[in-house]
Amino acid sequence: MDEDAPEPAIEEMRRRIGAVYPVVRRELPQVADLSVRGPGGRVPVRLYRPVPPGRGPLPAVVYLHGGGWVLGGVDNVDAACRELAAGAGCAVLNVGYRLAPENPFPAAVDDAWAVVEDVAREPGRYGAVPGAVAVAGDSAGGNLAAAVALLARDRGVPLAHQLLVYPVTDTAMDTPSWRAYGSGYGLDAGTLARFMDLYRGGADPSDPRLAPLRAPDLSGAAPATIITAEYDILRDEGEAYARRLAEAGVPVRAHRYDGVVHSFFLLPEIFDAGAEAMGLAVRRLRAAFGDRTREGGAAWARTGGTARTSG
């Protein structure tokens, strides 16, 4: 990034972000926009189910989008959520949490938790199997998913899995991958540092809801899958989190995809590794949910689902 160039306005960046995500989206029998009561008002949630209304129930995944806690929304991960629902035979809840700087930390964590708590408390509203809930997210959404997984452990809400895709896990911004890939590899270190400041505000940088890697104890957290990219500033902290989970006795699989940059998971049209990583995510979720995904997978196969192109 040109250090002398003015930083783009947040609103302009929000307008631009939708243009880089896929427009080919899988048809599903049920997609519905709902909302959940949160501490700051209603939280938008888009529900995807790979079976017609009334069929199921299915396991559920709460998905949290990326964008540095400042950009993005449910539309930016719509295609990925459809693929997860179809592939894993589960319901997916795509969360439109509040964004910074208008709503700094812990607003996003609070909204994410409100959705997890709601689906755990009222699974019937979502056609979900009681006790079969996982969390997932990419980038800043991976940060939120990891934070929510720790909250779930502490608050007695068992989760089946946590799927963390190139997650932010720390506030230090001092790893070798930060230094090596800070410019020219898609996710700019200066931009993410700016966003982190906007999101963090005056919060303690060691708060585990902000920096899960700094949590003093990770034992008892949900089993995890952590996906990283070789040419990504977040690579090292994601892999460090996987090591900490393993050391704490948490079952975890970490997989680095070589030769790719940040956001590859959401761009399978550009990166073959994106489709491969989605396949890994689907397999890990299906394994975590066990037999409870069979109804969803079988029903989806019967629908003969296809992809469509949407503008």
Write the layout of secondary structure elements.
Layout: H1 10-17, E1 24-26, E2 30-38, E3 41-49, E4 58-64, H2 78-88, E5 91-95, H3 107-121, E6 128-138, H4 140-154, E7 161-165, H5 176-180, H6 189-200, E8 224-231, H7 235-247, E9 252-261, H8 272-289, H9 294-303, E10 307-309
Parallel strand pairs: 4-5, 4-6, 6-7, 7-8, 8-9
Antiparallel strand pairs: 1-10, 2-3, 3-5
Please give the largest β-sheet.
8 strands, mixed
Total count of strands? 10
Q: Could you say what the CATH architecture is? A: 3-Layer(aba) Sandwich
> Remind me, CATH topology?
Rossmann fold
Number of domains: 1
The helix/strand class is alpha/beta
Molecular shape: globular
CATH class descriptor name = Alpha Beta
Strand order of the largest sheet: 2-3-5-4-6-7-8-9
Hey, roughly how much beta strand do the residues contain? 15-25%
What integer is the average pLDDT?
92
What are the segments in which pLDDT stays under 50 over at least 5 consecutive residues? 296-311
What does this structure look like?
- This protein has a single domain (10-303), classed as Alpha/Beta hydrolase fold, catalytic domain (Rossmann fold, 3-Layer(aba) Sandwich), CATH 3.40.50.
- Helix 2 (78-88) links the parallel strand 4 and strand 5 (91-95).
- The chain has helices at 10-17, 78-88, 107-121, 140-154, 176-180, 189-200, 235-247, 272-289, 294-303, and strands at residues 24-26, 30-38, 41-49, 58-64, 91-95, 128-138, 161-165, 224-231, 252-261, 307-309.
- It has 311 residues and is of the alpha/beta class.
- It has 9 helices and 10 strands.
